[in-house]
Amino acid sequence: MPSRRNHTSTPTKKRPLIALGIETSCDDTCAAIVTSDRQILSEVLRTQHHLHEPMGGIVPKLAHHAHMRNLPEVVREAIQKAGLGDDLSKIDIVAVTRGPGLAHCLGVGLNAAKTLAAALNKPLIGVHHMEAHALTARLTTADPDAQHHSEPQITETGAVNYVPVGSDPYPSFPFLTLLVSGGHTLLLVAHSVDRYTTLATTVDDSIGEAFDKTARELDIPWLPGRAGGPGASLEAYAKGSKSPTRYLSQLPIPMSLRATKREMKFSFSGLKSAVTRAVEKEKKAGQGIMDDDKRMDLAAGFQHCAITHLCQKVEQGLRDCREQGIHISSLVISGGLCTDNAVMIAWTGLERYQKGLIDRYDIDIAPKWPLDMLGTGVVPE
């Protein structure tokens, strides 16, 4: 359970807080330095696509060993790029992904962060990966009212900052957040830092799993680099479709029938199975071959049905919140499909630290950790 004691390091107009963030929950090794006035001083990432693409997906053992090789240099490079020199005392907190994620991968980052925090005598913040996705918008989104009605501040590094140090970022709570990733599909109300209510989750596959498996079914090569992977590759591949409606009659929009339309659930297994049947049908007719045009059209049809499903449930969630008297300020869409990174971990560490949510050095990983358990003091083993 996080401690809630006060600390002397607080943001001031002269000195914003500085956080080191570490992220190793899946297949990217990341470190970043971020300040409480929303400046990203550095970000370093090592991908592992070349290891996992030949295997058709993420292999936990390969990812674990790659994190062990990459993390020391990634952290060193992030510190150097941030311009902190050799004075690591300027780092106010060390934030790290504690869960959910692949157990052995989480352990690499958490052990490194605990050692760094203890050696530097700095607070340790164990971050819930999905809370970090939910709060990313409060780092990246400028308050539209502040832009139009406030004078921008010019920081010492020359960056334009519309949010005064220590002010509450935009969007304000409560907001609705759709979190879409390789392992999760969640619609949540974010009431505050450390407090979330789940409105809908998947009853079978996550949307990320559906995208990945469909990409493999269609034999779509992965895109290289940071924005790569099977899901992103499918999206890029579908853009080449010349007849995106070709397969819509064979593909269901999940949970869209009258009996299930109001149910707050996500489901992608039926859509994924429909893609498999369409591929098998085309290959049977084409002597084992499905040409590129048809594969692009099927990718586009799958994407249309999956995204329509998300939109329908978000609309239902907004209606339900309105009926319950919950005044939603904004809709935030985030998640692993939007790229995992250490910037969001560092930022969430800052948000939690400024709420007094600090962890002990003996915390453990939490590979399975429902987001609405935050704030209860209970972390699953």
Oligomer: single chain
Strand percentage lies at 15-25%
> Which spans have pLDDT < 50 for at least 5 consecutive residues?
4-8, 147-152, 154-165
Q: Mean of residue pLDDT?
A: 87
Could you tell me the number of beta strands? 12
Structural class: alpha/beta
What does this structure look like?
This protein is of the alpha/beta class and 381 residues long. Helix content is 37%, strand content 17%. The chain has helices spanning 49-52, 60-81, 103-120, 129-135, 137-140, 144-149, 207-217, 230-238, 269-285, 292-323, 342-353; strands at residues 18-23, 29-35, 40-46, 93-99, 124-128, 153-154, 160-161, 175-180, 185-192, 195-202, 265-266, 331-334. The protein has a 5-stranded mixed sheet, with helices on both faces. α7 (207-217) packs antiparallel against α10 (292-323).
